[in-house]
Automatic annotation (TrEMBL):
Signal peptide: none
CDD domains: ACD_sHsps-like
InterPro entries (UniProt xref): A-crystallin/Hsp20_dom (IPR002068), HSP20-like_chaperone (IPR008978), Small_HSP (IPR031107)
Species: Kitasatospora aburaviensis
One Pfam family linked to the record: HSP20
Highest rank taxon of the organism: Bacteria
PANTHER family, alphabetized: HEAT-SHOCK PROTEIN 20 FAMILY MEMBER (PTHR11527)
Record-annotated SHSP domain positions: 24-136
Family: Belongs to the small heat shock protein (HSP20) family.
Protein name, per record: Hsp20/alpha crystallin family protein
Length: 144
C-alpha cells in the first residue's frame, strides 16, 4: 500500500507546465507516476522520457522512496535556431511513502523506453499464512 503525502502536487505540476518553468535541484518538477499491486509486489512506474539512465537517482530512507532525474538539453551546434521547445527540461523529483506492509530492502528498478519501474515486495508479515490448531489429537488448519 502506498501513502499519498502531498495533495497539491498535481496542482503544482499543472501550474509549472502552464508557466513553462524549468525544475531546479532546489525546486524540482514533479513527475507523473502509476502504481498498482501485482501479486506479492507493488509496482510504481515513473514517466521519464528522454532522460539518460545515468541521470536518475533513487534513494530509500526508512519507508520513503525518492526518485530524482535530470533531463538536459541536447547539443545541436551553433547554427541551430529553435522554433519551438515544449518538452520540459531540468530536474524532476517524486517522493513516495511506503506503508509498513512493503519491504523497502527488496526494491528493484528497471528503466526501459522512458519509463522507470520500481518493484517493491510485500513484507512477509503482511502475507496471508495458515495457522495450525491442535484439538484432541487431531490437527486442523485455518487460514488467517
Amino acid at each position: 500500500m502506498l501513502l499519498r503525502t502531498d495533495p497539491f502536487r498535481e496542482l503544482d505540476r499543472l501550474t509549472q507546465q502552464f508557466l513553462n518553468t524549468t525544475g531546479t535541484w532546489s525546486r524540482p518538477t514533479p513527475m507523473p507516476l502509476d502504481a498498482y499491486r501485482a501479486g506479492d509486489e507493488y509496482v510504481i512506474c515513473f514517466d521519464l522520457p528522454g532522460v539518460d539512465p545515468e541521470a536518475i537517482d533513487i534513494d530509500v530512507e526508512r519507508n520513503m522512496v525518492t526518485v530524482k532525474a535530470e533531463r538536459r538539453p541536447h547539443r545541436q551546434g551553433d547554427e541551430v535556431k529553435w522554433e519551438l521547445s515544449e518538452r520540459p527540461l531540468g530536474v524532476f523529483s517524486r517522493q513516495v511513502m511506503l506503508s509498513d506492509t512493503l519491504d523497502p530492502a527488496g526494491i528493484t528498478a528497471d528503466y526501459d523506453a522512458g519509463v522507470l519501474t520500481l518493484k517493491i515486495p510485500v513484507a512477509e508479515k503482511a502475507k496471508p499464512r495458515k495457522i495450525e490448531i491442535s484439538h484432541s489429537g487431531s490437527r486442523k488448519q485455518i487460514q488467517a
